[in-house]
Design a protein that fits this description.
Length: 323
């Protein structure tokens, strides 16, 4: 697919993510509070390392092979998304009983593994990573749909599902390597993040970006040289797509975490070893993450020495939306 229109993009600064899930709640209240969408989180915040949502999505396949052919991965099961148990609020809050009224007791829910991570104390580690549809330049969901029900808008590059054409075959769900297309069993159609295009058309940012208390998201067009997004992605090249090896060309970018403390020895003395291993960051963002981390650290050192850094100023800018 040759996309020739403008592309709206988002940059997410992972160093500033609080893991508070305000973005998820904002999205849920606005878009997925209707029948058949109970299990859907178009935006979610995962603890990494961890299985994520849906569970083990990174191993389900999809995307494109080295020849540009779309790959059909496996369909997530309903249990992979997590089945929320019924809650006995009356018994738990007013009668002294248990809150969860489920038999058997749940062993997996969305965010079941939150804050778990890997490693052993005191050198255990984890990070938060918000995820939503990447509105890819080369969407695998679009390439996989036999009904031509998925399209990419020329005016902003937002990827949408035409509900009049969709028949719920779920090839799109299988092909999306990020598993951000979901199936509504009530309507028998596929649904996904719409990048809040009704808000965008009014000049308002996405709800997940607007409501974020950590101010970690910036939104703008990649061809707008005055936009912070352009400067971070194109000019300074410090914002990176998640799993670029999938071949879809994501347009949600991440500033990888670079300010984590060093690992320490038994006496608590720094070992000059990254708390979040570079090998793990490479598994998420590819080999180029080494250069990005080096650039970010150099910019931080420049500021610590009394200098200035446009990159760090951009990451803390009040001019977060250029629509």
């Amino acid at each position: 697919m040759a996309f020739t229109g403008r592309q709206l993009a988002m940059v997410i600064n992972l160093d500033k993510c609080l893991g508070c899930h305000t973005c998820t709640v904002a999205c849920k209240n606005l878009w997925t509070n209707r029948k058949g969408r109970e299990y859907m989180y178009w935006n979610n915040v995962e603890s990494k390392p961890g299985p994520g949502y849906p569970r083990n999505w990174e191993g389900m396949g999809g995307g494109f092979d080295s020849y540009g052919n779309v790959q059909y991965g496996t369909l997530p099961t309903r249990d992979d998304y997590g089945r929320d148990p019924d809650y006995d609020y009356q018994g738990g809050l007013f009668e002294g009983g248990g809150i969860v009224d489920a038999n058997p007791q749940p062993t997996w829910l969305s965010n079941w593994d939150e804050d778990v991570g890997e490693g052993t104390f005191p050198n255990n580690y984890y990070m938060y990573i918000p995820r939503l549809c990447n509105h890819c330049t080369n969407p695998a969901c679009l390439a996989a749909c036999p009904r031509n029900a998925i399209y990419k808008r020329e005016e902003d590059g937002i990827v949408l599902v035409d509900q009049d054409r969709c028949r719920g075959y779920r090839y799109c769900v299988r092909a999306c390597p990020y598993k951000k297309v979901m199936y509504n069993a009530f309507t028998k159609q596929s649904e996904k993040c719409i990048f809040c295009y009704p808000r965008i058309e009014k000049g308002e940012p996405n709800a997940c970006a607007k409501q974020c208390p950590g101010r970690i998201r910036q939104v703008g067009f990649l061809d707008d040289t005055s936009a912070d997004v352009y400067k971070l992605v194109v000019q300074h090249q410090v914002a990176m797509p998640l799993h670029p090896e999938y071949g879809t060309g994501p347009n949600v970018y991440y500033i990888p975490p670079f300010s984590g403390a060093s690992q320490v020895d038994e006496q608590g003395r720094p070992l000059n070893v990254d708390r979040i291993p570079m090998a793990f960051l490479r598994s998420l963002f590819g080999d180029d993450v080494d250069g990005v981390i080096a650039t970010l650290r150099a910019e931080r050192d420049t500021v610590s020495s009394g200098g200035s850094s446009e990159i760090l100023e951009l990451l803390n800018s009040n001019n977060r939306y250029s629509l």
